[in-house]
Amino acid sequence: MKNTLKLPFILSLIVFLFNGFNNIYGQSDCLNIQINASFKDKPLMLNDTVYAFKNNHKIRFETLKFYLSSVTLIERALPVWKEEESFHLIDFEERDSNALCLEIPDGLTFDAIQFNLGIDSLTNVSGALGGDLDPTKGMYWTWQNGYINFKLEGTSNLCNNPKNEFQFHLGGYTAPWSNVQQIKLNVANTSAFNISFNLLQFVNELDLENLNHIMSPSDSAVDYAKLAAKCFSIK
Amino acid sequence: MIKYFLVVICLVFTQLIEQNNSYNTPKNWPAPFYNFKKNKLSKEKILLGRVLFYDPILSKDSTISCNSCHSPFSAFTHVDHAVSHGIHDSIGTRNAPALMNLAWHKSFMWDGAINNLDMQSLAPISHPAEMGSNINDVVMKLNRSKLYKKLYHNAFNDSIATGEHTLKAIAQFMLTIVSCNSRYDKVMNNENKFTPQEENGYQIFKKNCSSCHTEPLFTNGEFANNGLASDALLNDKGRARITQKKEDAYKFKVPTLRNIEFSYPYMHDGRFKKLNEVLNHYTNGIKKSETLDAKLQNGIVLTSNEKVDVIAFLLTLSDKQFLFDKKFAYPKEVIHLQ
Q1: In whole angstroms, what is the distance from residue B49 CA to residue B60 CA?
Q2: What contacts B49, CB < 8 A, 6 or more positions away?
Q3: What kind of fold does domain B194-320 have according to CATH?
Q4: pLDDT digits (tens, 9 = 90+) for B126-165
Q5: How does pLDDT run across B210-263, given as a tens digit for each residue?
Q6: pLDDT > 70: what percent of chain A?
Q7: What are the CA-CA distances from residue B235 to residues B238, B240, B255, B269, B287 (Å)?
Q8: Which pLDDT value is given to residue B334?
């Protein structure tokens, strides 16, 4: 009788300890990738931090949000794993949103990660969607349908308008202003890596004196989306 | 026997939608464009959509509902109002479109700005001269309501209102707004006959109008410049606002002519109050411009008698069963329960 009671107890203890260790060491069934944004090699601070850039001009950021979608792992130029329903809103005011958890098979090998900056055209015409694609997320245009792929807002003394504001809402899903950008980054250490967005690199290329608002699909929106796509790297 | 069978099909159209979760296309109509697989119809979702449609909670100060500018008795437009009205007595720039048979449309609004019926309600909710709110505030208000908690739970098995569910429910109600039981439809189904005057008007219509106002929906869903003189103050460039292409300047979406008797005033800015003014425009008022539709380069030639006959035909497109259908009415049975 004693033995029959002992066995379930021991099994329960093993399961408990296993789960416990998993929790302690943060192990899970998925590949975690943190999405970071940096300014001068330091984590981006929104709202209160005023940065110097471009010969001591000033810039401050209030919002940085973008969509990463169609996440794919690649080995020797061929896709080896694609995430289903792959839409991630990265919002630097909601730090919890900035981690991808990719549920990949054990032992999968890859040498690059590919993803889209923005939302594909089919999804743009697919009606009301939920989760990160819910229109309440503030990334959907109402006067003309379509997702905002990338949103950067803030102030700079370079912006010649009453509040020195800049607002870049980059989107558009139809030609000639299809805005979504595909990005491929080589990965050396596939067990632990993060993706970083270099915001200084992006704003250094901006012409804030002459163009500080983009609110609709346009040539400039496409140019800025291409520029943003170049600012991602593996860290 | 066949006659009664066809009448019954149209009469129970909406009930069939609700019972079978399927959308039955009226006889001789094309397949709907709307993708029902992504928003499966249910009577609970349609009811939620109907309650939302009539509820001014969607507007910033809770004074304006969808119904304010889209009343069933005027084919879901704003009778007698040239352009739409909004909160604080705001005046818009365009005529509120009549709502019907929306499952067959690929785009919405006079300029086609909206690409999917689900997303249509976002535009009036957010427009400062219409409801002046935003979907986040709307969802927040809905989540404070006991009634909506119950309605959302019944519809989506989740009592929390989200943007997705709110938009899908309103779309579901709009999808049920189908007009397919006019005298024209009965004639096409061999249940009735045109008078000689209506028949003559129909033949003239087919020759001169139906390339854009294509049967059975009485719109081809395309954009056209029909030769209206541009309003100097508004200078509304229509479709070009969306595409930024000069070849789209002054083009507007071709509206349906179903229930045209009740959906006055006419045109994107509501400039014509009567049907004979519309026909006079096409015969004598066409303003030439670079983007004028090729078919209207020389206007339409009609005698006075022919105009009368065309109007007699257009009146056969009235569907009184649709206009006064209780399924589309104010949801007093639900509001009463509050």
Answers
A1: 19
A2: B169, B170, B171, B172, B173, B174
A3: Cytochrome Bc1 Complex; Chain D, domain 2 (1.10.760)
A4: 998 899 999 999 999 999 999 999 999 999 999 999 999 9
A5: 999 999 999 999 999 999 998 888 889 999 999 989 999 999 999 999 999 999
A6: 88
A7: 9, 12, 20, 11, 14
A8: 85
With an 8 Å Cβ cutoff, are B162 and A144 in contact?
A: no
Same fold, B2-179+322-333 and B194-320: yes
Name the residue among B175, B155, B169, B152 with its Cα closest to residue B14.
Answer: B175
Q: Cis (ω within 30 of 0) for the bond into A176?
A: yes
B116 to chain A, closest Cα gap in Å:
5
Q: Which residues in chain A have their CB less than 8 angstroms from residue B114's CB?
A: 144-145
CA geometry: angle at B100 spanning B270 and B19, to 5°? 165
The answer to whether A136 contacts B135, with C-beta atoms less than 8 Å apart, is yes
Whether the per-residue pLDDT at B182 is higher than 90: the answer is yes
Burial string for A146-175 (b: 16+ CB within 10 Å, else e) reads bbbbbbbbbbbebbeeeebebebbbbbbee
To the nearest whole Å, the CA of B6 is away from the closest chain A CA by 33
Q: Taking 80 as the threshold, does the pLDDT of residue B50 lie above it?
A: yes
How many residues make up chain A in this entry?
A: 235
| CB spacing of B163 vs A218 below 8 angstroms | no
More confident residue, A192 or A68: A68
CATH architecture label of B2-179+322-333? Orthogonal Bundle (1.10)
- CA dist., res. A212 & res. A83, Å (int): 35
Q: A105, A101, A207, A215: which is closest to A160 by C-alpha?
A: A207
Please give the ipTM for the structure prediction. 0.81
Q: What pLDDT is recorded for position A77?
A: 94
Domain boundaries, chain B: 2-179+322-333, 194-320
**Cross-chain Cβ contact A142/B126 below 8 Å:** yes
Nearest residue in chain B measured CA to CA from A121: B115
**Distance between CA atoms of residues B119 and B95, nearest Å:** 19
pLDDT tens track for B191-209: 999 999 999 999 999 999 9
Contacts 24+ apart (CB under 8 A), A107-111: A108/A73, A108/A80, A108/A81, A109/A75, A109/A80, A109/A190, A110/A73, A110/A74, A110/A75, A110/A80, A110/A81, A110/A187, A110/A190, A111/A74, A111/A75, A111/A76, A111/A186, A111/A187, A111/A190
Mapped onto helix, strand or coil, the DSSP state of residue A5 is helix
Residue B82 CA to residue B86 CA, distance in Å, equals 13
A53-88: b (≥16 Cβ within 10 Å) or e: beeeeebbbebbbbbbbbbbbbeeeeebbebeeebb
A184 Cβ partners below 8 Å, 6+ apart? A74, A112, A113, A114
Q: How far is B9 from chain A (nearest CA, A)?
A: 29
Q: Is A128 on the interface with B (CB under 8 A)?
A: yes
Q: Minimum mean pLDDT among A33-47, A108-122, B71-85: which range?
A: B71-85
